[in-house]
Amino acid sequence: MAKSRIGIWLVGAKGGVATTAIVGITALKKGLVGTTGLVSQLPQFQHLDFADWSDFVIGGHEIRDVSLIDEATRLVTESRTATPEMIARCKADLQGIDRRIRPGCVFKVGPTIARMAGPHVPRRESPREGVERLRGDLDEFVHTERLAHAVVVNVASTEPPVATDSIPPSWVELERLLEKPRKCPLPASSLYAIAALETGCSYINFTPSLGSTPAAIDELANLRGSRHMGCDGKTGETLMKSVLAPMFQRRNLRVMSWVGHNIFGNMDGRVLDNPANKQAKLASKDHLLGEILDDRPQTLVSIEYVESLGDWKTAWDHVHFTGFLGVPMVLQFIWQGCDSVLAAPLVLDLVRFTELAHRRGQTGLLTFLASFFKSPSGVEEHRFDCQFHMLEKWAKG
């Protein structure tokens, strides 16, 4: 097993997913929890030379003025996903991690997210100044903690969508725009990606935000010999779609319509209550069925903020399909789960697989990680079983 120190740098480091991942990995180090929910712990991956949980050091960026301990305590009082005893056992570690969290970036994140930022977050820096500041934080983290490598994972709130036709195709052209705040179309998620890749870190975009999606940023990753992948972690309703849609296709059952209604009340839900932010998430959730099913059924996805639900998400889906003799039938399912608890182990898995890809010398897009994402960059295959086979094939190699 790897014995070098490995960095995990979380963007949105005190949000629900990040806090759950931090508490989770701290509890794993102390032997307080098991490994249920971690893909990297499946039998077919046990031969891989993954880094041990004890090898990881955590830092991050955050725009809100909140305490990591307070956010971890919310896992007990509001989400009911951790025990008071667990938080107490992890408290000293969480305080140490809190001291490594730096002010984030709010460039073109939209007004809903910008309003959450505390006074310590710079408001007037240019994109290039923002990238240099973020790079400085990462450089300090790597050198102070004597890290062999660091993986930056974006688990921040969803930004409004960006018109990609306004983004130059080459890194040389895009880099020039970093000096021009009014002309630069990139949001904060892409500035984090650029800072990570310029520093030699890996970058994983677990959100629907733009991140490292532009071709010019992929070019930067290859120029720097780094690696990246995204976007939008596949944890619940869309995961079910990627499993069930191929079933209809392989049974020659025609799906006429598929309607999904989602309700949840965490901070992500509050951000997605803004129509501009919601648009990016809806696009990520809705395109998959058209990619899998030949008949391209009528689809509808809705997301509604219900404050009382907190981090507990309910998705109700209604599938209208026809079978032999043209008989119409219906499948309905309800997915209820804790959003952060579903996402956090996948974040840790992505870090482990990405760090191993770094040691294997792999650069550019990590397409073998497609099964973790709703909109996997560089991958046209959306059937979950086929995507997972890509991961297994990579593991054998």
Provide a descriptive summary of the structure in words.
The protein has 397 residues and is of the alpha/beta class. The chain has 2 domains: 6-233 and 341-396, NAD(P)-binding Rossmann-like Domain (Rossmann fold, 3-Layer(aba) Sandwich); 237-338, Dihydrodipicolinate Reductase, domain 2, CATH 3.30.360.10. It contains 13 helices and 11 strands. The protein has helices spanning 16-29, 68-77, 84-98, 111-114, 127-144, 171-177, 188-199, 215-223, 237-250, 267-272, 275-292, 339-359, 384-396; strands spanning 6-11, 56-62, 101-103, 149-154, 202-205, 227-230, 254-264, 298-305, 312-322, 328-338, 364-365. The strands form 2 sheets. A 7-stranded parallel sheet has the order 3-2-1-4-5-6-11, with helices on both faces. Strands 8-7-9-10 form a 4-stranded mixed sheet. Strand 1, helix 1 and strand 2 (56-62) form a beta-alpha-beta unit. Helix 1 packs across helix 2 (68-77), helix 1 packs across helix 12 and helix 5 packs across helix 7 (188-199). The longest helix has 21 residues, at 339-359. The mean pLDDT is 95.
Outline the secondary-structure elements:
Elements: E1 6-11, H1 16-29, E2 56-62, H2 68-77, H3 84-98, E3 101-103, H4 111-114, H5 127-144, E4 149-154, H6 171-177, H7 188-199, E5 202-205, H8 215-223, E6 227-230, H9 237-250, E7 254-264, H10 267-272, H11 275-292, E8 298-305, E9 312-322, E10 328-338, H12 339-359, E11 364-365, H13 384-396
Parallel strand pairs: 1-2, 1-4, 2-3, 4-5, 5-6, 6-11, 7-8
Antiparallel strand pairs: 7-9, 9-10
